[in-house]
Amino acid sequence: MNPLRVHVMTTAAQIEELKTLVESGKVLTDADALQTYGKDWTKQYTPAPSAIVFPKTTEQVQAIVRWANQHRIALVPSGGRTGLSAAAVAAHGEVVVSFDYMNRIVEFNEYDRTVVCQPGVVTKQLQLFAEEQGLYYPVDFASSGSSQIGGNIGTNAGGIKVIRYGMTRNWVAGLKVVTGSGELLELNRDLIKNATGYDLRQLFIGAEGTLGFVVEATMRLERAPKNLTAMVLGTPDFDSIMPVLHAFQGKLDLTAFEFFSDKCLDKILARGDVPAPFESRTPFYALLEFEALNEDVANGALATFEHCVEQGWVLDGVMSQSQQQLENLWKLREYISETISHFTPYKNDISVTVGQVPSFLRDIDDIVSANYPDFDVLWYGHIGDGNLHLNILKPEALGKEDFFARCAVVNKWVFEIVEKYNGSISAEHGVGMTKRDYLQYSRSEAEIACMKAIKAVFDPNGIMNPGKIFA
Ligand code: MLT
Ligand code: ZN
């Protein structure tokens, strides 16, 4: 792939031609639209697309891709724009393809427990639809009210239930994609068993739209969980969280095991709309969730809690007794991202195998606190699956450019530690542009060469989201 072959700006005549490919009014070029659709939730880049196009059908997506090939115009896919790695940012005159109008649930298959979705279906919409069928779509995260299935597939989204249900990849039964050369591929045909060679479906999951665009996805549903119950436990230090995880996993099938630091709690309580879990404050908190299927399970959880207190791993704790309390406890964790977004955070989304988490966090925390003594450093994340979110908040007095430049310096050291632990520089947010220059810390040269070769197969002219994942 050579991005230099792709034009930076489209001409007025090309935009006029684009307009003929979709319904009237479905190409926007006004400043507001360019600003809105040219970006995701990241704040490092200035959006500068040439136009926004809203296809309504697969045929229209194919026509757009063919048009882009003909004129060598770069396309950027756009879903709910909740991404955190700038994978859906158009900063170089690209044309944004928004899936907002391909947002229908097409079909429900009762026996297969699958739902055929257009890419613009919002995650919450799928979750509610599943609920109406007495079932459950288990991939969940704070941005589920805006994020779209196509984007979730593009980043192989994870979230708060991965410990039990895995990532988005586990729930994709089949995909229809339009490749970078405009071809429509039907991948895996929604089958459970299909041993017919390469599973191309998996290549498109987590590809951030660099190989092609998802135009339809068949998603699997699951039995709905019963009587979900959460506990928030205050711990004296980070190291105590791991034996707590181990103790609870020995007794219960956890549906979630999250953590956050007291600094995160500070920010949440400052909002004024979320109650504190308990009166005392501790340096770290674990939030765990399980299905209290019967009294024995709930009693087992309480007995494990008492054991953790006796061991000194837990200083205080609370267990939800109602749906409202469950929701309030989850707000302590789920509201963190949105609450701190006002501080222009420098975000890291790193992972290692679960057993290595304590020493990994300690190594990184040492580097970060030594180099950012004047910055607010917040830790939270999905500790049960080894995924930590390290967020450094921008001091008000410091300019955005200076702040990100200072963060980039320490970034290198953080990623060297990730590499030493054989970890990932992006556990669930994707690579996009923010992590692109660090890919070599998690992928070997040979792997990156294979990835580029695969891209060339599906996107020979390099028009599909160029400059994302790799340069
Ligand atoms: C989360 O775990 O809250 C999300 O991944 C978003 C974030 O990291 O801020
Ligand atoms: Zn996360």
UniProtKB/TrEMBL annotation:
A biological process from GO: respiratory electron transport chain
Transmembrane regions: none
Reaction(s) the record says it catalyses: (R)-2-hydroxyglutarate + A = 2-oxoglutarate + AH2
Keywords, sorted A to Z: FAD, Flavoprotein, Metal-binding, Oxidoreductase, Zinc
A Gene Ontology molecular function term of the record: FAD binding
Top class in the EC scheme: oxidoreductase
Pfam families to which the protein is assigned, alphabetical: FAD-oxidase_C (PF02913), FAD_binding_4 (PF01565)
Matches recorded under InterPro entries: FAD-bd_oxidored_4_C, FAD-bd_PCMH, FAD-bd_PCMH-like_sf, FAD-bd_PCMH_sub1, FAD-bd_PCMH_sub2, FAD-linked_Oxase-like_C, FAD-oxidored/transferase_4, Oxid_FAD_bind_N
Domain FAD-binding PCMH-type residue range list: 45-224
Co-factor requirement: FAD
This enzyme's EC code(s): 1.1.99.39
Subunit structure: Homodimer.
Family: Belongs to the FAD-binding oxidoreductase/transferase type 4 family.
The protein, known as: D-2-hydroxyglutarate dehydrogenase
Organism annotation: Ectopseudomonas oleovorans (Pseudomonas oleovorans)
